[in-house]
Amino acid sequence: MTSSRQLLDGAVAAAQAGGAILVEGLRRPLAVQLKSERASIVTAVDLAAQQEITQVLTGRFPDHAILGEEGNGGAAGNGPVTWLVDPLDGTSNYVHGVPFACTSVAARDADGLVVCAIYEPFRQELFTALRGGGAWLGEDRLTVSATDSLNRSLVTTGSQTDDGAAIAAFGRRVVALSSHCRAVRCLGSPALCLAYVAAGRIDAFLERDSTYAWDVGAGALLITEAGGHIEDLDGGPLNLGPGLANVLASNGRIHAALAELVRTAEAAGGVG
Prior knowledge:
single chain, about 270 residues, Fructose-1,6-Bisphosphatase, Chain A, domain 1, 2 domains, seven-stranded mixed β-sheet, five-stranded mixed β-sheet, 7 helices, 14 strands, about 25% strand
């Protein structure tokens, strides 16, 4: 039976291997391809990092499954553990030379998320968490911020869609947030934003119509272990399977007020 510590070691090795591909990829021209729409892109670096991460994970855990943004790389279709892999979270930032991007790896079993690693290779920051064992940045234990009111909060969000209704709904959310929070930012990497919530650097992150399990799985465990709260944007459990994983994450102290604000703004014009 694979131990949690073995899973964590595998997550770290995979995330760092993928991160090395990201750093190397910036040394040569990037060819950008559309996946399905203007806002959804992929590069050879995404694919190479996915392959490298898959090789690390399947080499250590051949009976495990992989749910990855760029496919499962031939890994098992199901198994006792499923790995949630985003080889390059923040691709648009990356292709424009903005060093706010990361590799995200998490493992879930029948009881939920077990371990995770988010690696930002440009500053060499490694965020990790172990179920019941806390969230960490290197050797420093993480805890969410102490901000207890929206008017003192720094909230991050984002949008990655070509759908006009979804874009309009995003605009309503930004107006509502900007009217009640200290500052609203769109940083462009959901996984890294979630890691920053866990680290207490920002107070909340939310996004609709753009995020999937591989974007939010690792961050979800980090935030939970750091004392915050994360759920589906409409309430209830976060989706960690196939399909959209609309997300609302915070330090917990502002969560109820933030959720009410967002849902009121969306209801005013219909959810996008």
